[in-house]
From TrEMBL:
It comes from the Bacteria. It holds the Pfam family HTH_25. Gene3D superfamilies: lambda repressor-like DNA-binding domains. It comes from Candidatus Scatousia excrementipullorum. This is Helix-turn-helix transcriptional regulator. GO terms for molecular function: DNA binding. Residues 14-70 form the HTH cro/C1-type domain. The lineage of its organism: Bacteria, Candidatus Scatousia.
Length: 127
């Protein structure tokens, strides 16, 4: 994949996650300390180069990514699964809901809490 295509994909991933989390540009700016102008340029593929690693880290944290943004920016060429802690069901579900639904982070937390409660109830019924 050439650099321009990578930059476009990088921006698309950021925008999709931001929208999935129902964050405005200003909200993401506050949470990440990355300017809304820079975020807009990234999302629209208007950057000539990838941002600095610290900027990617700030966006990654605010958007609840693990290493995905670094992989897209070729800072990490592959995820080192043997060094990463195994994701819990809750982590995987949270990521799925954040990227595949329009639920905000509070509602995602409520869904996970609800499922946890159902699991506990089911265990009690099976005793």
């Amino acid at each position: 994949m050439d650099k321009h295509t990578q930059l476009i994909k990088f921006g698309t991933v950021i925008k999709q996650r931001r929208l999935a989390l129902k964050l405005s540009l200003r909200e993401l700016e506050k949470q990440s300390s990355v300017s809304a102008a820079l975020i807009t340029k990234l999302e629209n593929g208007k950057m000539a180069n990838f941002p600095k690693a610290i900027t990617i880290k700030q966006l990654s944290d605010a958007l609840k990514f693990n290493d995905e943004l670094f992989v897209l920016a070729d800072i990490l060429f592959e995820t080192k699964e043997h060094n990463l802690p195994e994701k819990t069901f809750e982590d995987e579900l949270r990521q799925l809901l954040a990227t595949r639904t329009t639920l905000n982070s509070d509602n995602i937390t409520q869904v996970i809490y609800f499922i946890s409660g159902l699991e506990k109830l089911q265990k009690m019924e099976n005793l």
